[in-house]
Amino acid sequence: MNLDTICIQGGWQPKNGEPRVLPIVQSTTFKYDSTAEMAALFDLEKAGYFYSRLQNPTCDTVAAKITALEGGVAGMLTSSGQAANFFAVFNLANAGDHVISSSALYGGTSNLFTVTMRKMGIEFTLLDPDSDEQTINAAFRPNTKCVFGETLSNPSLHVLDLEKWARCAHGHGVPFIVDNTFPTPINCRPFDFGVDIVTHSTTKYMDGHATQVGGAIVDSGNFDWMAHKDTFPGLTTPDDSYHGLVYCERFGKGGYITKCVAQMMRDLGCSHAPMNAFLLNLGLETLHLRVPRHCSNALRVAEFLESSPDVAWVNYPGLRSSPQYERAQKYMPAGTSGVISFGLKGGRDRAIRFMDSLRFVAIATHVADARSCILHPASHTHRQLTDEQLAAAGVPPDLIRLSVGIESSDDILADIQQALAVR
Fold first, then answer.
1. 201 CB neighbour count, 10 Å cutoff
2. What is the pTM for the complete model shown?
3. According to the model, what pLDDT value does residue 384 have?
4. Among 210, 217, 371, residue whose Cα is nearest residue 283
5. Cβ distance 129 to 102 under 8 Å?
6. Using CA atoms, how far apart are residues 220 and 232, in angstroms rounded to an integer?
Protein backbone atom coordinates (compact mmCIF):
# COMPACT_ATOMS: atom_id res chain seq x y z
CA MET A 1 0.00 0.00 0.00
CA ASN A 2 1.00 3.63 -0.47
CA LEU A 3 1.99 5.61 2.62
CA ASP A 4 -1.27 7.56 2.45
CA THR A 5 -3.26 4.35 2.76
CA ILE A 6 -0.99 2.88 5.45
CA CYS A 7 -1.57 6.00 7.57
CA ILE A 8 -5.28 5.22 7.59
CA GLN A 9 -5.57 1.47 7.10
CA GLY A 10 -2.27 0.14 8.48
CA GLY A 11 -2.01 -1.94 11.62
CA TRP A 12 -5.65 -2.47 12.55
CA GLN A 13 -7.53 -4.64 10.07
CA PRO A 14 -10.77 -5.69 11.79
CA LYS A 15 -12.34 -9.06 11.12
CA ASN A 16 -16.03 -9.67 10.65
CA GLY A 17 -18.00 -7.99 13.42
CA GLU A 18 -15.00 -6.32 15.05
CA PRO A 19 -14.85 -2.57 15.74
CA ARG A 20 -13.93 -0.41 12.75
CA VAL A 21 -11.85 1.90 14.96
CA LEU A 22 -8.82 0.53 16.84
CA PRO A 23 -10.07 -0.41 20.32
CA ILE A 24 -8.30 0.63 23.52
CA VAL A 25 -7.33 -2.49 25.48
CA GLN A 26 -7.09 -0.74 28.85
CA SER A 27 -5.98 -3.73 30.86
CA THR A 28 -2.77 -4.50 32.68
CA THR A 29 -3.24 -8.27 32.53
CA PHE A 30 -4.66 -11.05 30.38
CA LYS A 31 -6.34 -14.27 31.53
CA TYR A 32 -5.30 -17.83 30.57
CA ASP A 33 -6.78 -21.22 31.33
CA SER A 34 -3.62 -23.07 32.31
CA THR A 35 -0.25 -22.47 33.94
CA ALA A 36 1.42 -24.15 30.95
CA GLU A 37 0.04 -21.53 28.55
CA MET A 38 1.29 -18.72 30.76
CA ALA A 39 4.69 -20.38 31.18
CA ALA A 40 5.09 -20.64 27.40
CA LEU A 41 4.52 -16.88 27.12
CA PHE A 42 7.12 -16.12 29.79
CA ASP A 43 9.64 -18.35 27.99
CA LEU A 44 8.95 -16.59 24.66
CA GLU A 45 7.90 -19.92 23.20
CA LYS A 46 4.46 -18.63 22.29
CA ALA A 47 3.15 -15.26 21.08
CA GLY A 48 0.53 -13.53 23.19
CA TYR A 49 -0.17 -11.04 25.94
CA PHE A 50 0.20 -11.39 29.68
CA TYR A 51 1.23 -7.97 31.06
CA SER A 52 0.93 -4.57 29.39
CA ARG A 53 4.35 -3.35 30.48
CA LEU A 54 5.78 -5.72 27.88
CA GLN A 55 3.11 -5.85 25.21
CA ASN A 56 -0.43 -4.61 24.69
CA PRO A 57 -2.69 -5.18 21.66
CA THR A 58 -3.45 -1.48 21.13
CA CYS A 59 0.21 -0.49 21.38
CA ASP A 60 1.37 -3.34 19.15
CA THR A 61 -1.15 -2.42 16.47
CA VAL A 62 0.10 1.18 16.32
CA ALA A 63 3.72 -0.04 16.34
CA ALA A 64 2.85 -2.22 13.33
CA LYS A 65 1.50 0.82 11.47
CA ILE A 66 4.68 2.85 12.13
CA THR A 67 6.79 -0.15 11.12
CA ALA A 68 4.90 -0.36 7.82
CA LEU A 69 5.31 3.38 7.22
CA GLU A 70 9.08 3.07 7.67
CA GLY A 71 9.29 -0.16 5.64
CA GLY A 72 10.71 -2.19 8.53
CA VAL A 73 10.18 -5.75 9.75
CA ALA A 74 9.54 -5.18 13.46
CA GLY A 75 8.80 -2.27 15.77
CA MET A 76 7.77 -1.27 19.27
CA LEU A 77 6.43 1.73 21.15
CA THR A 78 8.04 3.33 24.19
CA SER A 79 6.89 5.92 26.71
CA SER A 80 8.83 8.75 25.03
CA GLY A 81 11.31 9.56 22.29
CA GLN A 82 14.03 9.70 24.95
CA ALA A 83 13.20 6.14 25.97
CA ALA A 84 13.27 5.04 22.32
CA ASN A 85 16.78 6.42 21.78
CA PHE A 86 18.01 4.97 25.06
CA PHE A 87 16.60 1.51 24.35
CA ALA A 88 17.82 1.51 20.74
CA VAL A 89 21.43 2.07 21.80
CA PHE A 90 21.44 0.25 25.15
CA ASN A 91 20.06 -2.84 23.42
CA LEU A 92 23.50 -3.09 21.76
CA ALA A 93 26.02 -1.30 23.96
CA ASN A 94 26.99 -2.29 27.50
CA ALA A 95 29.42 -0.92 30.08
CA GLY A 96 32.85 -0.76 28.46
CA ASP A 97 31.47 -0.27 24.94
CA HIS A 98 31.71 2.70 22.59
CA VAL A 99 29.26 4.54 20.31
CA ILE A 100 29.85 7.13 17.56
CA SER A 101 27.26 9.84 17.00
CA SER A 102 26.74 12.99 15.00
CA SER A 103 26.99 15.99 17.32
CA ALA A 104 23.92 17.61 15.70
CA LEU A 105 21.45 16.23 18.23
CA TYR A 106 18.45 17.25 20.28
CA GLY A 107 19.81 18.54 23.59
CA GLY A 108 18.11 15.81 25.60
CA THR A 109 19.69 13.11 23.45
CA SER A 110 23.11 14.72 23.74
CA ASN A 111 22.78 14.80 27.52
CA LEU A 112 21.53 11.19 27.57
CA PHE A 113 24.64 10.10 25.68
CA THR A 114 27.35 12.28 27.19
CA VAL A 115 26.17 12.35 30.81
CA THR A 116 23.72 9.62 31.80
CA MET A 117 24.89 6.74 29.61
CA ARG A 118 28.51 7.71 30.21
CA LYS A 119 27.83 7.14 33.92
CA MET A 120 26.75 3.64 32.89
CA GLY A 121 30.18 3.01 31.40
CA ILE A 122 29.39 3.61 27.71
CA GLU A 123 31.69 6.05 25.92
CA PHE A 124 30.38 8.31 23.16
CA THR A 125 32.37 10.11 20.47
CA LEU A 126 30.40 13.01 19.00
CA LEU A 127 31.56 14.16 15.56
CA ASP A 128 30.71 17.14 13.41
CA PRO A 129 27.86 15.94 11.16
CA ASP A 130 29.78 17.15 8.11
CA SER A 131 32.93 15.19 9.00
CA ASP A 132 34.51 13.44 6.04
CA GLU A 133 34.65 9.66 5.88
CA GLN A 134 38.30 9.55 6.91
CA THR A 135 37.48 11.42 10.14
CA ILE A 136 34.47 9.22 10.89
CA ASN A 137 36.37 6.01 10.18
CA ALA A 138 39.21 7.12 12.44
CA ALA A 139 36.81 7.37 15.38
CA PHE A 140 35.93 3.65 15.37
CA ARG A 141 37.31 1.39 18.09
CA PRO A 142 37.26 -2.39 18.49
CA ASN A 143 34.42 -1.95 21.02
CA THR A 144 32.26 0.39 18.89
CA LYS A 145 28.72 -1.03 18.78
CA CYS A 146 26.72 1.40 16.63
CA VAL A 147 26.56 4.79 14.96
CA PHE A 148 23.79 7.30 15.73
CA GLY A 149 22.43 10.44 14.08
CA GLU A 150 19.32 12.51 13.33
CA THR A 151 17.98 12.79 9.79
CA LEU A 152 17.05 16.42 10.47
CA SER A 153 18.51 17.67 13.72
CA ASN A 154 16.63 19.53 16.43
CA PRO A 155 17.01 22.53 16.64
CA SER A 156 19.95 23.11 14.26
CA LEU A 157 18.05 21.61 11.25
CA HIS A 158 21.15 19.93 9.86
CA VAL A 159 20.41 17.38 7.13
CA LEU A 160 22.61 14.35 7.77
CA ASP A 161 24.33 12.65 4.83
CA LEU A 162 22.77 9.26 5.56
CA GLU A 163 24.58 7.29 2.86
CA LYS A 164 28.01 8.51 3.99
CA TRP A 165 27.43 7.67 7.64
CA ALA A 166 25.87 4.31 6.72
CA ARG A 167 28.93 3.39 4.64
CA CYS A 168 31.20 4.13 7.57
CA ALA A 169 29.09 2.13 10.01
CA HIS A 170 28.80 -0.89 7.74
CA GLY A 171 32.47 -0.75 6.84
CA HIS A 172 33.19 -1.43 10.51
CA GLY A 173 30.47 -4.06 10.94
CA VAL A 174 28.03 -2.08 13.09
CA PRO A 175 24.48 -0.78 12.51
CA PHE A 176 23.46 2.80 11.83
CA ILE A 177 20.63 4.15 14.03
CA VAL A 178 18.80 7.34 13.05
CA ASP A 179 16.19 9.48 14.79
CA ASN A 180 13.66 10.33 12.05
CA THR A 181 11.30 12.45 14.17
CA PHE A 182 11.26 15.70 12.20
CA PRO A 183 10.90 14.43 8.59
CA THR A 184 8.72 11.42 9.52
CA PRO A 185 8.50 8.60 6.95
CA ILE A 186 6.28 10.87 4.85
CA ASN A 187 9.32 13.01 3.94
CA CYS A 188 12.21 10.58 4.47
CA ARG A 189 12.50 6.79 4.59
CA PRO A 190 15.99 6.26 6.06
CA PHE A 191 16.05 2.53 5.28
CA ASP A 192 16.23 3.46 1.58
CA PHE A 193 19.62 5.08 2.26
CA GLY A 194 21.32 2.34 4.29
CA VAL A 195 20.03 3.09 7.79
CA ASP A 196 19.40 -0.04 9.87
CA ILE A 197 17.26 1.14 12.80
CA VAL A 198 14.98 4.16 13.13
CA THR A 199 13.67 5.89 16.23
CA HIS A 200 10.93 8.49 16.70
CA SER A 201 9.52 10.83 19.26
CA THR A 202 5.91 10.15 18.34
CA THR A 203 5.01 13.15 20.51
CA LYS A 204 5.84 15.37 17.53
CA TYR A 205 4.42 15.15 13.98
CA MET A 206 3.12 11.59 14.30
CA ASP A 207 0.77 12.73 17.04
CA GLY A 208 0.54 16.29 15.74
CA HIS A 209 -2.01 17.48 18.31
CA ALA A 210 0.00 17.67 21.57
CA THR A 211 -2.14 14.99 23.22
CA GLN A 212 0.34 12.21 24.07
CA VAL A 213 4.02 11.60 24.80
CA GLY A 214 5.58 8.55 23.17
CA GLY A 215 8.39 7.00 21.18
CA ALA A 216 8.98 4.24 18.66
CA ILE A 217 11.80 1.98 17.44
CA VAL A 218 11.71 0.24 14.04
CA ASP A 219 14.20 -2.33 12.75
CA SER A 220 14.78 -2.61 9.00
CA GLY A 221 15.78 -6.27 9.30
CA ASN A 222 18.73 -5.57 7.00
CA PHE A 223 21.64 -5.78 9.43
CA ASP A 224 23.07 -9.30 9.67
CA TRP A 225 23.73 -9.74 13.39
CA MET A 226 24.93 -13.33 13.03
CA ALA A 227 27.59 -12.23 10.53
CA HIS A 228 29.04 -10.13 13.37
CA LYS A 229 28.35 -12.61 16.11
CA ASP A 230 31.28 -11.68 18.33
CA THR A 231 30.36 -7.99 18.31
CA PHE A 232 26.78 -8.51 19.49
CA PRO A 233 26.74 -11.39 22.01
CA GLY A 234 23.48 -10.11 23.51
CA LEU A 235 21.72 -11.02 20.29
CA THR A 236 23.77 -13.98 19.08
CA THR A 237 24.61 -15.98 22.23
CA PRO A 238 22.37 -17.59 24.86
CA ASP A 239 20.47 -15.31 27.24
CA ASP A 240 20.57 -16.93 30.66
CA SER A 241 17.55 -14.91 31.80
CA TYR A 242 15.49 -16.77 29.17
CA HIS A 243 16.86 -20.29 29.65
CA GLY A 244 19.58 -19.94 27.04
CA LEU A 245 17.43 -18.49 24.24
CA VAL A 246 19.41 -16.93 21.35
CA TYR A 247 17.34 -14.03 19.97
CA CYS A 248 18.60 -13.97 16.40
CA GLU A 249 18.37 -17.75 16.06
CA ARG A 250 14.84 -17.99 17.47
CA PHE A 251 13.34 -14.82 15.99
CA GLY A 252 15.49 -14.14 12.91
CA LYS A 253 15.00 -10.59 11.66
CA GLY A 254 12.77 -9.91 14.66
CA GLY A 255 15.56 -10.67 17.11
CA TYR A 256 16.63 -7.09 17.81
CA ILE A 257 13.13 -5.84 18.67
CA THR A 258 12.28 -9.00 20.61
CA LYS A 259 15.35 -8.50 22.80
CA CYS A 260 14.46 -4.84 23.22
CA VAL A 261 11.01 -5.82 24.53
CA ALA A 262 12.02 -8.93 26.48
CA GLN A 263 15.04 -7.34 28.19
CA MET A 264 14.86 -3.55 28.02
CA MET A 265 11.13 -3.15 28.58
CA ARG A 266 10.98 -6.01 31.06
CA ASP A 267 13.69 -4.54 33.27
CA LEU A 268 13.41 -0.79 32.73
CA GLY A 269 9.73 -0.20 32.00
CA CYS A 270 9.16 2.94 29.87
CA SER A 271 6.08 1.29 28.38
CA HIS A 272 3.58 3.10 26.18
CA ALA A 273 0.03 3.52 27.49
CA PRO A 274 -2.87 2.04 25.48
CA MET A 275 -4.80 5.32 25.65
CA ASN A 276 -1.77 7.20 24.33
CA ALA A 277 -1.42 4.66 21.52
CA PHE A 278 -5.06 5.24 20.58
CA LEU A 279 -4.48 9.01 20.41
CA LEU A 280 -1.27 8.50 18.45
CA ASN A 281 -3.14 6.37 15.92
CA LEU A 282 -5.64 9.19 15.34
CA GLY A 283 -2.72 11.48 14.58
CA LEU A 284 -1.14 8.97 12.22
CA GLU A 285 -4.36 8.80 10.20
CA THR A 286 -3.80 12.38 9.00
CA LEU A 287 0.03 12.43 8.97
CA HIS A 288 0.17 12.26 5.16
CA LEU A 289 -2.09 15.30 4.94
CA ARG A 290 -0.56 17.40 7.70
CA VAL A 291 3.14 17.04 6.86
CA PRO A 292 2.91 18.59 3.37
CA ARG A 293 0.87 21.49 4.81
CA HIS A 294 3.45 22.06 7.57
CA CYS A 295 6.18 22.15 4.94
CA SER A 296 4.42 24.47 2.49
CA ASN A 297 3.46 26.86 5.27
CA ALA A 298 7.00 26.82 6.68
CA LEU A 299 8.57 27.50 3.30
CA ARG A 300 6.33 30.52 2.79
CA VAL A 301 7.16 31.84 6.27
CA ALA A 302 10.89 31.19 5.77
CA GLU A 303 10.85 33.08 2.47
CA PHE A 304 9.12 36.01 4.15
CA LEU A 305 11.61 36.05 7.03
CA GLU A 306 14.53 35.89 4.60
CA SER A 307 13.24 39.01 2.86
CA SER A 308 12.41 40.95 6.02
CA PRO A 309 14.74 43.84 7.00
CA ASP A 310 14.09 43.00 10.67
CA VAL A 311 15.58 39.50 10.37
CA ALA A 312 19.32 38.93 10.79
CA TRP A 313 19.42 35.32 9.59
CA VAL A 314 17.18 32.36 8.73
CA ASN A 315 17.88 28.63 8.87
CA TYR A 316 15.50 26.43 6.89
CA PRO A 317 16.75 23.63 4.59
CA GLY A 318 13.91 24.22 2.15
CA LEU A 319 15.27 27.63 1.17
CA ARG A 320 17.35 27.62 -2.01
CA SER A 321 19.85 29.87 -0.24
CA SER A 322 20.39 27.30 2.53
CA PRO A 323 23.71 25.41 2.54
CA GLN A 324 21.58 22.35 3.40
CA TYR A 325 19.33 22.73 0.34
CA GLU A 326 20.98 20.26 -2.07
CA ARG A 327 21.25 17.52 0.54
CA ALA A 328 17.67 18.14 1.62
CA GLN A 329 16.58 17.69 -1.99
CA LYS A 330 18.37 14.34 -2.09
CA TYR A 331 17.00 12.88 1.13
CA MET A 332 13.76 14.86 1.59
CA PRO A 333 12.64 16.09 -1.84
CA ALA A 334 9.02 16.56 -0.75
CA GLY A 335 10.02 18.83 2.15
CA THR A 336 11.88 18.75 5.44
CA SER A 337 9.58 19.83 8.28
CA GLY A 338 7.66 22.80 9.60
CA VAL A 339 10.45 23.97 11.93
CA ILE A 340 12.41 27.17 11.23
CA SER A 341 15.11 28.86 13.28
CA PHE A 342 15.96 32.52 12.84
CA GLY A 343 17.37 35.57 14.58
CA LEU A 344 16.21 39.19 14.70
CA LYS A 345 18.30 42.31 14.42
CA GLY A 346 18.51 43.67 17.95
CA GLY A 347 19.42 40.35 19.56
CA ARG A 348 17.85 38.78 22.61
CA ASP A 349 15.79 41.80 23.74
CA ARG A 350 14.21 42.18 20.33
CA ALA A 351 13.47 38.44 20.18
CA ILE A 352 11.66 38.59 23.52
CA ARG A 353 9.66 41.67 22.47
CA PHE A 354 8.68 39.99 19.21
CA MET A 355 7.54 36.77 20.86
CA ASP A 356 5.57 38.56 23.58
CA SER A 357 3.74 40.49 20.85
CA LEU A 358 2.47 37.42 18.97
CA ARG A 359 -1.29 36.91 19.19
CA PHE A 360 -1.99 33.27 18.27
CA VAL A 361 1.44 31.78 17.60
CA ALA A 362 1.87 30.45 21.12
CA ILE A 363 4.99 30.37 23.28
CA ALA A 364 5.31 26.67 24.12
CA THR A 365 7.98 24.06 24.83
CA HIS A 366 6.93 21.97 21.88
CA VAL A 367 7.34 21.51 18.14
CA ALA A 368 5.45 19.76 15.36
CA ASP A 369 1.98 20.60 16.60
CA ALA A 370 -0.94 21.39 14.30
CA ARG A 371 -0.91 24.79 16.03
CA SER A 372 1.99 27.16 15.40
CA CYS A 373 4.26 27.57 18.41
CA ILE A 374 7.48 29.37 19.17
CA LEU A 375 10.35 29.16 21.66
CA HIS A 376 13.35 31.32 22.56
CA PRO A 377 15.92 28.83 23.90
CA ALA A 378 18.09 31.50 25.59
CA SER A 379 15.06 32.59 27.64
CA HIS A 380 13.51 29.16 28.14
CA THR A 381 15.17 25.77 27.65
CA HIS A 382 18.73 27.18 27.96
CA ARG A 383 17.91 30.01 30.38
CA GLN A 384 20.59 28.99 32.88
CA LEU A 385 23.45 29.58 30.40
CA THR A 386 25.44 32.77 29.82
CA ASP A 387 25.82 34.18 26.30
CA GLU A 388 29.26 32.60 26.12
CA GLN A 389 27.90 29.22 27.18
CA LEU A 390 25.05 29.54 24.69
CA ALA A 391 27.55 30.14 21.89
CA ALA A 392 29.54 27.06 22.95
CA ALA A 393 26.33 25.01 22.86
CA GLY A 394 25.55 26.21 19.33
CA VAL A 395 22.54 28.23 20.48
CA PRO A 396 22.96 31.93 19.65
CA PRO A 397 21.27 34.28 22.17
CA ASP A 398 19.00 35.57 19.40
CA LEU A 399 17.90 32.15 18.10
CA ILE A 400 14.13 31.76 17.81
CA ARG A 401 12.66 28.33 17.03
CA LEU A 402 9.37 28.56 15.17
CA SER A 403 7.24 25.48 14.58
CA VAL A 404 4.87 26.43 11.78
CA GLY A 405 1.45 24.83 12.12
CA ILE A 406 -1.26 24.03 9.61
CA GLU A 407 -3.36 27.16 10.06
CA SER A 408 -3.79 29.55 7.12
CA SER A 409 -0.34 30.73 6.10
CA ASP A 410 -1.87 34.19 5.56
CA ASP A 411 -2.85 34.35 9.22
CA ILE A 412 0.52 33.03 10.41
CA LEU A 413 2.32 35.68 8.36
CA ALA A 414 -0.02 38.41 9.56
CA ASP A 415 0.71 37.54 13.18
CA ILE A 416 4.47 37.56 12.52
CA GLN A 417 4.25 40.86 10.66
CA GLN A 418 2.33 42.66 13.38
CA ALA A 419 4.72 41.35 16.06
CA LEU A 420 7.73 42.53 14.06
CA ALA A 421 6.15 45.98 13.85
CA VAL A 422 6.20 46.33 17.64
CA ARG A 423 9.21 48.43 18.67
1. 29
2. 0.95
3. 64
4. 210
5. yes
6. 17
